[in-house]
């Protein structure tokens, strides 16, 4: 049985990277980035004709049968160009409209939120028995929310240079400016509790809050499209009222908490709502042209982890602050040589 020569994997519709090649002193010059390559060939004009055909409109088989070189010679030339980084692929990956993908991701996140987050003791107690919830749980939620806002730049700033679309970059920069210093608004809520801004800045967030912040920062740097899909969830979602009402503030009112504490939290929520931050993800994905099938699959794979991080965030707030004996702020006790737990 005759063995057939197997062609290596090559781009489906090869495109020559870099500027068009040129002939100088019977040598072909190719430029890739800042590097110039010189190719010697017995028939440079014939090789130039093949290089000129690498415009992404012909597949490999069409190039092999186009004449000028044998099929094996074409394969060898293409293989050498590909190994040197001179070939791109003009094939269009399977993709869907970005907004269609987002709406399905939102559904998946919402289902996970209902299954994993709304069933936590924190949310069950706040929605069903807000007057019986220990007051420190309300304070603790505000404290961790402040820690989250105080560190928001760690993830928001990472997508300001989003490479996919300049319109998205402009929108993200506007969003970043609107979010700037929102932690200072929430700081006012702690003054009635005898907690100063310096006290807050020297305190430590719960490990679950740090985990959520670090995960968002990682996604913003490594999977920015998924991160963009989470912004609206973090901001309260598209269903958030224009007055900034939410379940936590409703529970605070029902429990009769001091307005000096609740007022700054309500002000922050109202500012977010007035800027439409609950719809930021939809506005961004309206601008994005498409999301590839591979990216969509990766985004779906992150949803359960995102909801798990959110679940842990609320579970730990209840676990720590439902015990009245624990201090409101977790601080490093340098003088005592120990850390509060």
Which helices and strands, and how do they pair?
Elements: E1 14-16, E2 22-24, E3 27-32, E4 35-40, H1 44-52, H2 60-64, H3 71-83, E5 87-89, E6 95-96, H4 98-117, H5 121-128, H6 135-150, H7 153-156, H8 166-179, H9 182-187, H10 197-201, H11 207-222, H12 224-234, H13 247-255, H14 259-274, H15 280-287, E7 291-292, H16 293-321, E8 332-333, E9 338-339
Antiparallel strand pairs: 1-5, 2-3, 3-4, 6-7, 8-9
Instruction: Output the radius of gyration.
Output: 29 Å
SSE arrangement, N to C: EEEEHHHEEHHHHHHHHHHHHEHEE
Mean pLDDT: 86
pLDDT < 50 stretches: 1-7, 334-341
Based on DSSP secondary structure assignment, what is the total number of beta strands? 9
Order of adjacent strands in the largest pleated sheet:
2-3-4
Termini Cα gap: 74 Å
Shape, per Cα inertia axes: elongated
Strand content: 5-15%
Query: Into which percent range does the helicity of residues fall?
Result: 55-70%
Q: CATH top level of the largest domain?
A: Mainly Alpha
CATH superfamily of the largest domain: Heme oxygenase-like
Number of domains: 2
Query: Which fold name fills CATH's third level, the topology of the largest domain?
Result: Heme Oxygenase, Chain A
Structural class: mainly alpha
Per CATH, the architecture of the largest domain is: Up-down Bundle
Biggest sheet architecture: 3 strands, antiparallel
């Amino acid at each position: 049985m005759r063995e057939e020569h197997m062609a290596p994997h090559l781009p489906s519709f090869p495109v020559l990277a870099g500027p068009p090649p040129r002939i100088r002193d019977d040598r072909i010059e190719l430029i890739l980035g800042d590097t110039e390559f010189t190719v010697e060939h017995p028939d440079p004009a014939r090789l130039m004709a093949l290089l000129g055909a690498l415009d992404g409109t012909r597949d490999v088989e069409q190039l092999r049968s186009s004449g000028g070189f044998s099929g094996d010679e074409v394969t060898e030339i293409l293989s050498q160009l590909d190994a040197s980084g001179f070939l791109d692929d003009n094939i269009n990956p399977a993709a869907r409209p970005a907004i269609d993908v987002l709406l399905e991701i939102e559904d998946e996140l919402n289902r996970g939120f209902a299954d994993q987050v709304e069933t936590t003791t924190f949310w069950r107690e706040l929605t069903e028995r807000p007057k019986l919830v220990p007051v420190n749980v309300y304070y603790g939620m505000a404290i961790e929310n402040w820690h989250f806002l105080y560190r928001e730049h760690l993830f928001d700033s990472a997508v300001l240079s989003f490479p996919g679309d300049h319109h998205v970059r402009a929108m993200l920069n506007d969003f970043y400016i609107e979010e700037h210093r929102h932690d200072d608004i929430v700081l006012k809520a702690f003054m009635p509790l005898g907690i100063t801004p310096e006290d807050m800045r020297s305190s430590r967030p719960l490990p679950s809050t740090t985990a959520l912040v670090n995960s968002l920062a990682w996604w913003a740097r490594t999977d920015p499209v998924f991160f963009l899909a989470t912004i609206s969830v973090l901001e309260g979602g598209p269903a958030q009222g224009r007055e900034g009402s939410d379940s936590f503030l409703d529970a605070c009112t029902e429990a009769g908490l001091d307005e000096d504490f609740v007022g700054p939290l309500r002000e922050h929520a109202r500012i977010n709502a007035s800027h439409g931050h609950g719809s930021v993800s939809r506005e961004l994905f309206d601008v994005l042209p498409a999301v590839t099938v591979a990216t969509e699959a990766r985004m779906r794979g992150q949803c359960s982890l995102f909801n798990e991080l959110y679940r842990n965030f609320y579970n730990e707030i209840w676990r720590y602050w439902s015990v009245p004996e624990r201090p409101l702020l977790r601080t490093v006790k340098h003088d005592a040589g120990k850390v509060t737990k």
